[in-house]
Amino acid sequence: MTAGASQALDLQAERNLIRRARDGSQAAFTQLMEAHQDRLYRFLLSRAATRADAEDAMQESFINAYRYLASYKPRWRFSTWLYRIALRELGKMPRPAAYDTALQEESSREPDPLAACIKTEERENLWLLARQVLGEDAFTALWLRYAEDLPVRDVAHVMGRPASWVKVVAHRARKRLELSLDSKQRAGSSAEHAYIAGQ
Amino acid sequence: MLTLQGNEMKTIEHRLQADAARIRVQTPAAVKQRMHRALARAGRQAPTPRRASWLTPGFATAVAMSFVLAVVALVWLKQPEESAPAVPVIASGAPLDNHQDPMARITQVMAARESPEAELQAELAHLNADWQRIRTRVRDQLDPLL
Questions:
Q1: Interface test with A, best of B16, B17, B32 (most A CBs within 10 A)
Q2: CB-side exposure of B19: number of CA atoms within 13 Å?
Q3: The model's pTM
């Protein structure tokens, strides 16, 4: 799954960069940052209320990662650790009033940052529906699991919850999405029937 | 309309993964520059990232000192007890009747037969145990009297 032009790093190269960065190499950390910034930015855009919030949270996340690199434990993926920091940074931001993209587009407010990333012809994207019908935690768990492809234990680590919680929340979120899709489908077909009957 | 039709979109999971792959985001150049500047500032403020506490010289010194203290305590505890105040020998005491000095006994055994060292060690251990038992018994008998 790509998120722009992130430079993919293999595990060994990433470990070498982390080791060098821990030894004080800012160039090594810059390389790490460049490899992860697009994915992290996408994650933050999916959660933040505004694009500016996502940018601020990303900057703070990388600065904190640089400062506290010594506390990184290699048993977790580096990206998992970054998401954990980013989620904490995002928690410091003012909470969004609502995720309802339709309402946001009608108002003069900045459009939903996630919706802005999705091309107009791809507005059937399931993640937009997920943002409307799911709570923050459920959306985040689902995003980390399926969009970022993190294992359940990593999602649990990022969110500071037990793995069982992640499984239950992800399951409920999928069910909720399935129900929402069904009801949308039913509403669509009944509108179609009404149109045909009207003719 | 959002539906779950299509062979490759059988489940919500597949649909979520596929739809996420379609969301392509690139960090804007201005944001990248801002982050580089912020990182450079952070680097100037702290030239080397903080190292883990267990890697600091202070921590190493503390570990070394703890180790030395532990060794000293171990040596002190392993030292034989101060020899008990001289106890008058009870010449006629029954427990001492059969007592023989361990070294003398070993010498005797060595002279009697050319035993392997292990056997001698076992004999020595046995004699020492006897000696300790006798000492304890004598002390127990004498303590109430003193």
A1: B16
A2: 27
A3: 0.60
